[in-house]
Amino acid sequence: MTDLRPLPARSALRFPLGVGVLLGLGLGGFFDGIVFHQLLQWHHMATSAGYPPDSVENLRLNTLLDGLFHAATYAMVVVGVWLGWRAAREHGVEGWRGRDAIAALLIGFGAFNLVEGLVNHHLLGLHHVNETAPRGQWVWWDIGFLLWGAAMLAAGYALWVRGRA
Fold this sequence. Notes:
The protein is elongated. 68% of the residues lie in helices and 0% in strands. The longest helix has 36 residues, at 56-91. The two termini are 35 Å apart. It has one domain (14-164). It is mainly α. It is built from 4 helices and no strands. It has helices at 17-39, 56-91, 98-123, 138-164.
C-alpha cells in the first residue's frame, strides 16, 4: 500500500530524533561498558549485587552480564542505523543538519546515563561508577555520572529546540 501523504519540503526535513536517540543510547552504553567496565575496570554489571570480582566464578558471571549489556547496546545501534538508512532512503538527507544529529545523540547518551545511573546505581544497587574508590565516595561518583547525563540531555535538548527556531 502506498503512503499518499505529501512529504514535507526537503528543507523542512530534520534529522530523525528517534534515530539519534537510539544511536546515542547505544553509544552511551558502549562508552560505559568499554571505558568503565573494561579499560578502567571500575565495575562490572553485578559487582555490588553480591558478585564482587574476587573469584573466577564471579568474574565469569559479570563477564556474561557485561556481554549481554553490550549486546543490548549493539542492538540499539543496529536499529538506529537501520531506521536512519530507511529514513534517508525514503526522504533523502538534504534537510538534515549536523546540529540536529548531535542534539539527538546527546539526548540519547544523556538519557542512557540518567536511566542506567538511576536504575543500576541507585535503585537496584547492582554496581556503582567507581568501585575502586573508597566506599564512602561511591555516591559522589554516582551523582557525578547523573549530572554528566543530565548535562548531555539538557545540551542536546537545547540544541534540538534551537534547531526548530
